[in-house]
Every structure is written in C-alpha cells, then in structure tokens.
Amino acid sequence: MTLDLSAGPPLAVNILDAQSLLSAFGVLGIAVVLFAETGLLIGFFLPGDSLLFTAGLLCTTGASDGLKLSLPWVMVASAAGALLGAQCGYLLGRRAGAALLARGRSTRLRAGADRAGELLERYGHARAVVLARFVPVVRTVLNPMAGALGVPSRTFTVWQTAGGLLWTQGLVVAGFALGSSIPNVDRYLLPLIALIVVLSLLPLAAELLRAQAARRKEARR
Length: 221
What we know:
The chain has 221 residues and is mostly helical. It is built from 8 helices and no strands. Helix 2 packs across helix 7 and helix 4 packs across helix 6.
C-alpha cells in the first residue's frame, strides 16, 4: 500500500474545487478539509461531498492528470478527518458554541444554524446528528450546537461516529464503484458531483415529508 501525495503542490490551489485540493495535497488534504468542515465554523464552505466522491473516483485506474490515490488510505483519512472534526466541534460548542454562532456574520452560516436547531428539536439527538452529516453547512454547525445545547456526550459520540462513517465511506465507495465500472468517467465529473450533492439531500427531504405526513394525520384527529 502506497500513499501518493503527488509530486508537489501547484502554485495556486482552488480550495472550493475537490480535484484541485486532491491534486495538491492528496489524502492528507482529505483529512484536513473534512476536519475543518465538520469541526471548525470557518470550514462551512468547503466541498466535503464532492471531495469524498472525487477521491473515490481517483482511486480507480485511468484517472485524469495521472493522479491515483489509494482507496484504503482515502477511507482512513476521510473517516479520521470527519470523526475527529465532529468531536472537536462538539467540544468547542460545550465551551463557547452559542457565543460563536451568535457572532457569526455569514447569512449562510446563520441559516445552517437555524436548520441544525430545527433538526435537533424535530428529530431528536440521534437522528439529527446522523442526518446532519448529509446536509452541507448543517454538518458544520450542528456539532458545536449539540455541545452548546447539552446533547449528552455519549449519545453524540455514538451517533456522529455512525453518521460520519456512513457519509464518508458511502461517498468514497460510490465514487470508486462508478470509476471502476465506467471507462473515462472522470470526464463527466462536474455533473456527477452535482448529482451527488442532490442525492445527499434526499435523507433530509424524506424526513421532512414524513414529518409533514405525521402532522397532517395528527391534525385530522
């Protein structure tokens, strides 16, 4: 098993572009980006979903630009970054999460915080922590919010681990499986990434529809 970090970083790296990040930093970049996105509020804009999917794709043979990643290392790095990041975010929230969110100036970050609070209130701690993994921005702010709102440490740790593994390993394996079955699939990377982002929102949409149906049923009684 080899760890390919590529020959060296380019002069300019687009931190919003998954392939640029992977070309510059390899699997180390996966761990750092996921840690920042899930553990630090400043990382809410980072491309977690597309990074995981693209990393899985680049573990297959024939990837563009000669970049080839190791699937086992990608899976380890993605899990480590996501799980450690979420736990760090939770601990920060226990200390100063509410104050940090209150001082945030980004409207996108505030909207994510509102959504995270709604998830925790509507679905309970366990389901909210798992669902948040699949929603951009929400997965950044829910962890410190869980700490600030006093979600039990054991509950948070168990379910953030389950959700983190499902999210990271699922997207990496999806990218790897697709890249292995379709020749030159990296040519269609942009539409595939857009599809992955849409699919990542489906669990939340399903929960919302289920909740609406339950409310209608309750109103008819």
